[in-house]
Amino acid sequence: MEKTIYFAGGCFWGTQHFFAQLVGVKEAVTGYANGHTDHPKYEEVYTDTTGYAETVKVVYNPERIGLETLTDLFFCIIDPLSVNRQGHDDGTRYRTGIYYTDPSEPEIIRKVYDREEQKAGAPLAVELEPLRNFFLAEERHQDYLDKNPEGYCHLPLKTFRYVRLLQEIPLYLGEERNPVARMANAAALIQERMGFFWTGFYLADGETLVLGPFQGPAACMRIGFGKGVCGTAWKEGRTLVVPDVHQFPGHIACSSLSQSEIVVPLHGKDGKVCGVLDIDSDQLASFDETDALWLEKIAAVI
User: Fold this and answer.
1) What pLDDT does 279 receive?
2) Cα-Cα-Cα-Cα dihedral of 254, 207, 239, 118, to 10°?
3) Are 98 and 126 in contact (CB under 8 A)?
4) 221-250 residues labelled b (16+ CB within 10 A) or e (exposed)
5) pTM (2 decimals)?
6) Confidence tier at 241 by pLDDT (50, 70, 90)
7) In terms of Cα–Cα distance, which of 245, 237, 160 is closest to 198?
8) Which of 148, 193, 160, 20 is closest to 77 using CA atoms?
9) In a 10 Å sphere around its CB, with 0-12 CB exposed, 13-18 middle and 19+ buried, how is residue 83 labelled?
10) Residue 267, SS3?
11) b or e along 275-290 (b: 16 or more beta carbons within 10 Å of the residue's beta carbon)?
12) Which uninterrupted H or E stretch holds 30?
């Protein structure tokens, strides 16, 4: 049985394109929600006098993708603390919100809200309300980025590649439990889909990280605890984004071509760091918070 939920995530062009990528989503259409006029036009909503928020209606199959997962992914594409602004777009029409029609849904959504609020350390600026009304946007606003591949989007374009990759990796890993096999396929997929200079894994072995499956040039075999970017991420248990590896204290140069780097800790079932996912670029400042967010989710799957 199909279900429907409504997400306001800033400009609806990018939000619609994002949800349309998700396996289990049957339909994602743009429109205007929770305003106080009838049948609003885009030009009217743009004035911020109608009370409407640019919103995407998402019709999904709950047997393939759940509401909690949809909500979790929604928070990946918004700044939940920003008031009436997402990216470069400013105005009440760009406020964030989740609007529901089933009274059982807020309890599910609230699970994600609570996690995000704890992570943010502040109250969220994301509305959670019943849907009062919804009107479809004009045809020119439907599937806008499919019609205009070079068109404006407030979301980083790599977001769409990451969300496809996040859904692909479990399909390739399947029920395989051998960690080396899982990491080998994951490294190949990440490298193929994202085109990084070097993608690989290091696994904790006593007081060092030992090289695991990777794609790219030959690399360091072992890295000490707290040494270099990988060893520091292991020690501190957090993702490190390094825009210029040559400026990182104690950087270990596995390749002179490496210019920037991101390292994501891998956590075992006991919660301890058991290794790292290490990705290098031959360009400066290649990685940012978007990469960190999605690579952490991918590392959790692996």
Assistant:
1) 98
2) 180
3) yes
4) eebeeebbbbbbbbeeeebbbbbebeebee
5) 0.94
6) very high
7) 245
8) 160
9) exposed
10) strand
11) bbbbbbbbeeebbeeb
12) strand 25-33
Collapse the DSSP code of 97 into the 3-class scheme (helix H, G, I; strand E, B; otherwise coil) and give the result: strand
DSSP string, 152-194: --SS-THHHHHHHHHHHHHHHHTT---HHHHHHHHHHHHHHHH
Beta carbons of 292 and 241 less than 8 angstroms apart: yes
Q: How many C-beta atoms surround the C-beta of residue 22 within 10 A?
A: 19
User: Region 174-191: what's the mean pLDDT?
Assistant: 96
**pLDDT value, residue 295:** 98
Composition of the chain by helix, strand, coil, percent to 5: 35, 25, 40
Which helix (H) or strand (E) segment holds residue 89: the answer is strand 89-90
Note the pLDDT tens digit of each residue in 254-297: 888 999 999 999 998 898 999 999 999 999 999 999 999 999 99
The token pair that represents 122 in the structure block? 């502040």
| Active-site residue list | 11
Number of helical (H) and strand (E) elements in the chain, helices listed first:
9, 14
pLDDT range class, residue 302, cuts 50, 70, 90? very high
What are the DSSP calls for 102-144, one per residue?
Answer: STTHHHHHHHHHHHHHHHHTS---EEEEE---EEEPPGGGTTH
For residue 231, give the DSSP letter: H
pLDDT at 254: 81
The number of C-alpha atoms within 13 Å of 181 and in the hemisphere containing its C-beta is 8
Q: Find where tokens 């590392």 sit.
A: 299
pLDDT one-digit tens code per residue, 91-104: 999 999 999 999 99
**Amino acid occupying residue 232:** T
